[in-house]
Design a protein that fits this description.
- This protein is of the alpha+beta class.
- It has one domain (2-119).
- The chain has helices at residues 16-27, 38-50, 84-100, and strands at residues 2-8, 72-74, 77-83, 104-107, 112-114.
- Strand 2 (72-74) and strand 3 (77-83) form a beta hairpin.
Length: 120
């Protein structure tokens, strides 16, 4: 079981139903529901400075990685999957980091959308 979070940029406030729909489409490999935005790459660069992407973790250190698989990334979105124990501990940090990068976060575990202050 993994703890998943999805991130993308929005120019307008977004509802929970809209966020859920975007997440579902992204999970189906449909990136047409988001627009390319440089903040996605900036967010991932900062996130991986704290916690290297699973592909960059030496095999003998994989058990120490919070990631359960490689990130699903497009030019306009990212889905990160954490192990369940890591996700419950790191979710607030990852969400706050996304907010700093002006990204929306959808949390399917809580069925909740987190929006940056710029969309308030």
């Amino acid at each position: 079981m993994s703890f998943d979070l999805s991130f993308w940029h929005e120019d307008q406030p977004i509802t929970l139903d809209q966020a859920r729909h975007i997440y579902t489409r992204l999970c189906d490999d449909d990136s047409t529901v988001v627009t390319a935005h440089p903040n996605v790459a900036l967010f991932l660069a900062e996130l991986t400075r704290h916690y290297p992407a699973i592909d960059d973790v030496p095999e003998d250190k994989l058990d120490d990685s919070p990631w359960s698989c490689a990130f699903s990334v497009t030019s306009g979105s990212a889905i990160v999957c954490m192990t369940w124990p890591a996700g419950t501990k790191l979710a607030s940090f990852v969400i706050q980091l996304a907010m700093q990068h002006d990204l929306v976060c959808y949390d399917p575990q809580q069925d909740a959308v987190h929006s940056p202050a710029s969309l308030s």
